[in-house]
Specification:
The protein is of the alpha/beta class and 215 residues long. It has 2 domains: 61 residues, no CATH class; 130 residues, 3-Layer(aba) Sandwich (Rossmann fold). The protein is 45% helix and 11% strand. A 5-stranded parallel β-sheet has the order 3-2-1-4-5, with helices on both faces. Strand 4, helix 5 and strand 5 form a beta-alpha-beta unit. It is globular and about 50 Å long.
Length: 215
């Protein structure tokens, strides 16, 4: 299969992962930790644009950040402060190690601060929008959530820190999780269109299996 055809399959999965939510003002912006500081930049940008007056970073160490010398949330907070976000407008949750814990531990942190948000802007990588949404609605179902991510197209997302093949591997793994995690109680169920799953099967057959979980 040609590189162009592989990219077409990957783009189909990328587009499915995007929720395309319209931004609304919210009680807080919750930025989920990852290995990509562009997510922190997106969260800070939203704060600076006035979408909320509280910015939360959640993330300890995950499967892609084991080599970092500090928790994801701490590193992301430094990015935001460097962009001009006041330190006293930031809350940090730095013990979580997966998306479910991101939401669960953040809920406990906000309760500790007597904060009870009704509407949350959730920020993650583009290909984790849908899975983050599904996890949020499972853990915190009574809140309205608006999901967004760095506004970068698939073709431009790979850089010197993450190759195109790495992006595809992770995207394929996240799509598998959307299918299998509801059965484990981690997420709400979401429909996966047949053509998207066909693209998944083709990419798995081509060897994009590095981020798959055992079913």
């Amino acid at each position: 299969m040609s590189r162009k055809e592989i990219r077409q399959l990957a783009k189909k999965i990328w587009d499915y992962h995007l929720m395309n939510h319209k931004l609304e003002k919210a009680d807080c912006i919750l930025v989920l930790g990852s290995n990509d500081t562009r997510v922190a930049e997106r969260g800070a940008q939203l704060f600076l644009e006035g979408w909320s007056s509280l910015l939360i970073f959640s993330g300890g160490t995950g499967r892609l950040t084991e080599s970092w010398n500090e928790p994801e949330a701490d590193k992301f907070a430094k990015v935001a402060i460097g962009m001009g976000v006041p330190k006293d407008k930031i809350l940090i949750e730095n013990k979580s190690s997966n998306t479910g814990e991101n939401i669960e531990f953040t809920e406990k942190l906000l309760t500790k601060h007597s904060i009870n948000p009704k509407k949350v802007i959730l920020v993650q990588k583009p290909w984790m929008e849908r899975r983050s949404y599904a996890t949020f609605k499972k853990v915190w179902p009574d809140k309205k959530v608006i999901v967004t991510s760095p506004q970068i197209p698939f073709e431009e997302y790979p850089n010197e820190k993450i190759s195109e093949d790495e992006v595809i591997n992770i995207m394929v793994g996240d799509l598998q999780r959307i299918k299998v995690y509801p059965k484990k109680g981690f997420q709400i169920t979401q429909e996966i269109p047949e053509d998207v799953w066909t693209a998944y099967d083709q990419l798995v057959a081509l060897g994009y299996t590095k981020q798959l979980v055992k079913e």
